[in-house]
Amino acid sequence: MARRGDIVTTYEGCQPFTNCQDSHPTVFVANIGIHTKTMKNVPHTFAPILCPIHTTPLMRVSNTVFASNLGVGRKGDKYLLGEEITTVLQSTVFAGG
Predict the structure, then answer these.
(1) Tens-digit pLDDT profile for residues 19-45
(2) Where are the beta strands (DSSP E) in 1-97?
């Protein structure tokens, strides 16, 4: 299950990696808030030429495990512009396959 600080691969030109930024205020795994649908990643640069800073919401999440009616994020889930949660720094809690 993804939490604040887990690693996101951007697949973009300027900055190859960023992190999960937002976290749930009351649901935690190993004392760190989990990352759910519509929560954003850390602002990062986008294109090799202009490099505007942007952040995008998590869109593809578990459809069977929820926190406050929002699907929880997991390794492999994706953000609006294709960024992907690629490294989850805890290995004890899993959600929805």
Answers:
(1) 999 999 999 999 999 999 999 999 887
(2) 7-9, 17-19, 28-29, 32-33, 44-45, 53-54, 66-67, 70-71, 84-87
